[in-house]
Amino acid sequence: MANMSETDEANPVIEQLEEKDKTSAVAVAGHPLHAMSVHFPIALVFGTLAVDVFYWFSADPFWLRVGLWTSGTAFLAGVAAGLVGTAELLLVPGIRARAASWAHAIAAITLISVAGANWGLRLLDPNVVLPHGMLLSVLAAVLTGVAGWHGGKLIFDHGIGLMVSPKD
């Protein structure tokens, strides 16, 4: 608040929000589990899209099998990360009180749903990967970007989930 002039007043809503605890409730040795667990589903969502592109260009059935595994693992890892994220959302008042937290949660839940649909499609009929699986993979990649942007905003702009020691 060093930039505030004497005529500016602090926003009481923001001050009240900043007073709420926003440190991670689900952590191991001070490291938030949600932040650690999202990397696998993110990589696997983009990996599934890459596999679909490889299949599109090569028509090699090998890529269908790889896509089945990457999409399934992306979904299951996303569910695990989502459970930890939901626990954080519900247990930490400083996280729950922010609109950006809910935007991140909605984008992430939508992403998990699309990843599940993508995996289910491949389980039922691998031959429909082109075009339906590819479209779901593109949608999942876009949703990953949206959810990731909101998650990054929570961490870098709001300091959500950070456990900073007094010496730092």
Automatic annotation (TrEMBL):
A Pfam family assignment: DUF2231
UniProt keyword 4Fe-4S present: no
Coiled-coil positions: none
Key words, A-Z: Membrane, Transmembrane, Transmembrane helix
Keyword Thylakoid: no
Domain DUF2231 as annotated: residue spans: 30-161
Membrane-spanning parts: 38-57, 69-92, 99-117, 129-149
Protein's name in the database: DUF2231 domain-containing protein
Organism: Agrobacterium albertimagni AOL15
